[in-house]
Amino acid sequence: RPRAITENAENPEFMVLQRNDPLAPMRLPVAWVTAMVEWMKTFESGTALPLVPKVIQGDADQTVAWRYNVKVLQRLVAPETLPLLEVPGGRHHLANESQQIRSRIFSWLDEQIAWPTR
């Protein structure tokens, strides 16, 4: 299946690298698509998670079905206990977004993670 490279981050240098990556296939192998379908079956039928993941998700991400994925994670954890940062304007590659978006993400992580003190 042909692969489309979409504008999924704000950083123009990253987008140039992504478009010109000689290791990135321009076709998705059938095996990859099959593996994704199998993963979705496993993910959807999951039972309660033994841990609580911290979810950082851009609300402009058009690469994954993130709203659906968040609902499944909420079911597996509990909606009221799933730490979720929904990043306004954030797309799929959040690490390659603007400094403002990255700063918001790192501030949220600092609030969420109990860093060891020295």
Can you walk through the features of this model?
8% of the residues are buried. The protein is mainly α. The protein has helices at 12-19, 30-44, 66-77, 99-112, and strands at residues 55-58, 84-87. Strands 1-2 form a two-stranded parallel ribbon. The radius of gyration is 17 Å and the shape is globular. Helix content is 42%, strand content 7%. It contains 4 helices and 2 strands. Strand 1 (55-58), helix 3 and strand 2 form a beta-alpha-beta unit.
Write the layout of secondary structure elements.
Blueprint: H1 12-19, H2 30-44, E1 55-58, H3 66-77, E2 84-87, H4 99-112
Parallel strand pairs: 1-2
**H/I helix tally:** 4
Low-confidence stretches: none
Mean pLDDT: 87
Radius of gyration: 17 Å
Multimeric status of the protein: single chain
Name the beta content range. Answer: 5-15%
Order of helices and strands: HHEHEH
Shape call: globular
Strands of the largest sheet, in order across it?
1-2
Major sheet size, sense and barrel closure: 2 strands, parallel
Structural classification: mainly alpha
Helix content: 40-55%
Q: Count every beta strand, where a strand is a DSSP E run of 2 or more residues.
A: 2
First-residue to last-residue Cα separation: 52 Å
